[in-house]
Amino acid sequence: MLWYQGQNTVASELPATASSPAQSPGFPLSSVPSSSRVVVDSANTKVEELLQLLNDASQRAANASASPVPFVLHGEEIRYFTRQQFEAHRELVDLAAELDASMVVEVKACRTTMQMLGIEDSDLPGFVELVPYGPDEVERLGSEGYDIYTAF
Prior knowledge:
There is one protein chain. By secondary structure, the protein is of the alpha/beta class. The chain has 4 helices and 7 strands, in the order βββαβαβαβαβ. Strands 2-1-7-3-4-5-6 form a 7-stranded mixed β-sheet, with helices on both faces. α2 links the parallel β4 (69-73) and β5 (105-110). α1 (47-63) packs parallel to α2. The longest helix has 17 residues, at 47-63. The chain is globular.
């Protein structure tokens, strides 16, 4: 399920509830205006959804000079990036690394979730930035003017 919350969202297009951002199943990240700064808030996102979001971020960057899209991971999806699961998720990790190196995305992992999952810092590739608590990082970026695109 995907959600998008941003100043460019039209309520009639994306219905909202009182306690959550605007719901948007299948709302592509690439359709978020490149003039908007956006953060992907990812909690327990499936591999296929992360691949699609990374491809959308790449397409969005190709259409204009969009700023890098932070991907804040704070669920089971952090496991996809571990050394132990690299072979099973090579396509995802390679794409994320390429887009990170090209300054299209910034992949960030929640240390709190990592501790709960038994993941060590050294289990993740060097391009993944570690943040103390994923939801706080999303909130911080939101307070800096980023629109929040939630995938879970």
